[in-house]
Amino acid sequence: MVDETRKKAEKICKALIREYGDEVSERKLPPIDELVMTILSQHTNDVNMFRAFESLKATYSTWDEVLAAPQDELANSIRSSGMYNLKAKRIQATLREIQERVGKLDLSLLEKMEIPQAKEWLTSLHGVGPKTAAIVLLFSFGLPVLPVDTHVWRVTKRLGIIDETVSREKAHDLLEHIMPRTCISSLNKNLVQHGREVCKAQNPRCDKCFLSILCLYYSEVDRT
Ligand code: SF4
After folding, report:
1. Is 131 considered catalytic here?
2. How confident is the model over 51-72, as pLDDT tens digits?
3. 90 with 172, same domain?
4. I want to staple 69 with a disulfide (CB 3.0 to 4.6 A). Which of 74, 97, 154, 215 is the partner?
5. How many other CB atoms are there within 10 angstroms of residue 27's CB atom?
6. What is the extent of the structural domain holding 131?
7. What letter would DSSP give residue 79?
8. Whose C-alpha lies nearest to ligand 1, atom 2?
9. What pTM value is reported for the model?
10. Where are the beta strands (DSSP E) in 133-213?
């Protein structure tokens, strides 16, 4: 069964790469930038998140300045992301924790770690879960990890790569174990694109889907 799932995963990966390419993403920001962006991205869309991030970077030159800033001033600079008071508090708490643990606002120590160790280090920061850790490792360090967002989670469950009952947190390690290493780096981008354009949450466009022949959901729905 595991072997069959792996074979299917390989076919899916190849089909996704054929359709969407195998680039990772244009984002190549330093790790603390990625961490802060994930905080800003909560409960908002990408446009508002990027707007808030740009405003924050225009207001402060360094992360030390962000840490030392009055909280209401920082909140004001990230207003467009929504829930700005809470996010300002979380950003400063995360920066403070890094400062205390590393002695400076710098995460380059992760570069020398193996992937599991780096994940463990990041997720031991308060409020940092497996998705955020994977985003930092993939986008800042180019490591072959898979951030599992709502699209990745939904599409891989429908395809039958992971079971319906698997939590999003557990899906990280499981999918990284099942999916071929050669396609892991582009998988987040490709599955997000597929989830947004074809395998939509409400009405999946199975009739237009190049993965239908491999899809569990498609094989089970009543198409009479
Ligand atoms: S066949 Fe339908 S459910 Fe399966 S991946 Fe494609 S769009 Fe999603």
Report:
1. yes
2. 999 999 999 999 999 999 999 9
3. no
4. 74
5. 13
6. 31-139
7. G
8. 206
9. 0.88
10. none
